[in-house]
Amino acid sequence: YTFGDASYNTTGEYPYTFTSVDGCDSLVTLRLTVLPVSESEMTLELTTSELPYELKHNGETIYVVEEGTEPGTYWPEITIENGAANGCDSIINLTLTVKLGDALHLTDYEELEFWPNPIERGGKVVISADFSPAERTNLKIEVYNSIGQCVATHRPTGESLYVEDFHVSGMYLVKVTTGTGRLYVGHVIVK
């Protein structure tokens, strides 16, 4: 707290002499009570597929984990104005862990191949697989970037199966779920 020409951060009485424009002096004593800061620890684990995520306190958004946040551990300090029982601000020391989305933790699948592979940005790949008519019915193609975000979903209707949603260099996971429920997975490298 600033009083006169000094700043104070501990409880106490602080006298100060103020001089008016007329030259008169006034002695004013500041009685300062510093309340303890309400501080708490919180741990939050999310996957990239859960982003964006809003952390709320009493119905108010106090922190947003943005879509596109890289996997890793973060330690933001969140201040909630007037959040403590005594009317003061409260602080939450958050340990935030963002993990890859569940879509990249696949089991029980068959390997999928593409050609050409690797490709240039903006290129397309053809899926090298021979699906039966039953498998082609309601076939779904999903494309995931390197941090586990689904960047495209297709339900092809034609004979040829291809994917062309590669606008950024990197490695992509392509997941194909057939109409019979079989799962195929492969990777595409974009130069």
From TrEMBL:
Source organism superkingdom: Bacteria
Boundaries of every Secretion system C-terminal sorting domain copy: 115-184
Protein name: T9SS type A sorting domain-containing protein
Lineage, highest ranks first: Bacteria, Pseudomonadati, Bacteroidota, Bacteroidia, Bacteroidales
